[in-house]
Specification:
This protein is of the alpha/beta class. The protein is built from two helices and seven strands, in the order E-E-E-E-H-E-E-E-H. The chain has a seven-stranded mixed β-sheet with strand order 1-7-6-5-4-3-2.
Amino acid sequence: MSDFHIDLDAVQRLTTGAVGPRGQRFFYMQIRRGSRLITMLAEKEQVRALADAVARLLDNLAEKNPRLITADDMLITDMSLEEPLEPEFRIGQMGLGYDTERDMVILLLQSVAEEDEEPLRARIAASRPQMRALSSHAAQVVAAGRPICGNCGRPIDPSGHFCPQRNGHGPIFSS
């Protein structure tokens, strides 16, 4: 028996997205294989970290083996979330790997551990072009949020932002 609650090989679709107004968004990750749709709840920083990690992994693979670069690496398809948005679990940890024999990127996900319960685990295998599209789209999803203050690194709300670095000299407004 598999150690994974969800074990999906060669998925057809893999995406991230956010729902809600800026500053109050909920972030999701979705995977589809056949008729099975898996939705998981994620944190914004997890989506940002995943986008960065996937881009670094694929760039390192291409650097080590230039034959892996293909025109398909920039294939972007519809990356919108599918309804219903009913998460199986909240992502607690993620891991990333590469299966050289099958030329597949492996994404490992683990749920936030509930009290007295083992965390759920998921293993997702996707192609390099799918993961490149995921990385690009995830970065766009994260960037669509509130602007970040250049002084303190905190998000700026439409109503303004109290910046500790400005030493009490009024709020900063987003444009």
